Amino acid sequence: LKRAKHTRQAEVYTPEELDKARRRFTLETELRKAIELDRLELYFQPLIDMSNGFVTGFEALARWKDPDYGMISPVEFIPVAEECGLILPLGRWALDRACKVLGEWDKKAGEELPLKVSVNVSAAQFARDDIPNMVSSILRANNTKPQRLCLELTESVVVSDPARAAKVMSALRALNVSLAMDDFGTGYSNLAYLQQLPIDILKIDRSFVTHMLKERDKVAIVRAILSLASALGMETTAEGIETLEISQTLAALGCSFGQGYFYSPPVPADEAYEYMITRMG
Ligand code: C2E
Ligand code: MG
Ligand code: MG
Ligand code: MG
């Protein structure tokens, strides 16, 4: 059990804390096993060009179906992976799997599809891994063009070490990979940095999007992010679009791309292929 560092007195867990600690320990053990046994799955959610409604790409999202515990959300297992270092193999797996799926889709279609795949890179992974080297070797191994890959980073990578973040991001850009700032508006990044970083896309967090038509403040924030992006020469993706009305409003406001249950939830690779093949320009 945990002990206070500088006193002799041992701290004791409350029953809730103990439950939480047990669950975490189990999750960590099971997650390690799931990665080793290649039991994680990558789902794909379409990214829609708001100007014409066509699919332009997909965001790759990790899924973990444990045989005993059932479906475990990435909201729960990604933080565990970050804490225990499993985020490095998990992150590499996600990137590799995403490239392999792109290749499988091209093969099925008999041509190189004009699609981008977006892969999430967590802050802990960004801090610890040599991302540019890792990315270029996985792209090479899969024969994937860097132009087809977008990496989604969060504001926290910038907050924790702005100088290093700028260096790593420039190195990624030099590979011709594009960069998106995920969950934009929920972090605490300094807006002055935004302008100096080689970011292609701002992803508007779904907390501003999903109920934006019922709350005036949210529309105001969405509008502000759209005009900030436009002033900085960046494109925008709105996440969490659940209704036709919101998709129409965002298109009218000039948002570049949309993502959300209104179009499709994240689905397995085969379903994503079927969805895309009838909805491409
Ligand atoms: P994210 O990168 O912001 O991904 C978007 C999340 O919003 C996904 O949740 C997606 O299913 C959900 N979403 C999309 N459209 C809608 C909608 O219309 N309504 C609602 N309510 N939700 C919507 P998901 O798949 O549960 O992933 C949660 C988070 O876990 C992701 O947020 C990302 O931060 C993290 N994550 C998932 N897969 C990976 C991964 O492979 N690597 C890393 N580092 N993080 C991952
Ligand atoms: Mg994301
Ligand atoms: Mg996001
Ligand atoms: Mg989000």
In short:
It comes from Blastomonas aquatica. The chain is of the alpha/beta class. The chain has 12 helices and 10 strands.
Description:
By secondary structure, the chain is an alpha/beta fold. 49% of the residues lie in helices and 20% in strands. It has 12 helices and 10 strands. Strands 1-2-4-5-6-7-8-9 form an 8-stranded mixed β-barrel, surrounded by 6 helices. Helix 1 packs across helix 2 and helix 3 runs parallel beside helix 5 (131-142). The termini are far apart. Residues 1-5 have low confidence and may be disordered. Bound molecules: ligand C2E and magnesium ion (3 copies). One magnesium ion binds next to loops.
Topology pattern, helix = H, strand = E: HEEEHHEHHEHHEHEHHEHEEH
The main β sheet shows up as: 8 strands, mixed, barrel
User: N-to-C terminal Cα separation, in Å?
Assistant: 58 Å
Q: What ligands does this structure carry?
A: ligand C2E, magnesium ion
| Sheet with the most strands: spatial strand order | 1-2-4-5-6-7-8-9
> Which radius of gyration do the C-alpha atoms yield?
20 Å
- Residues in helix, %: 40-55%
Determine the structural class based on helices, strands and strand pairing. alpha/beta
Work out the strand percent.
15-25%
Q: How many beta strands in the DSSP annotation?
A: 10
* Average predicted local confidence, pLDDT: 93
Q: Flag low-confidence runs.
A: 1-5
Please count the helical segments: 12
Give the overall shape: globular
Domain EAL: 24-280
Organism: Blastomonas aquatica
Protein name: GGDEF-domain containing protein
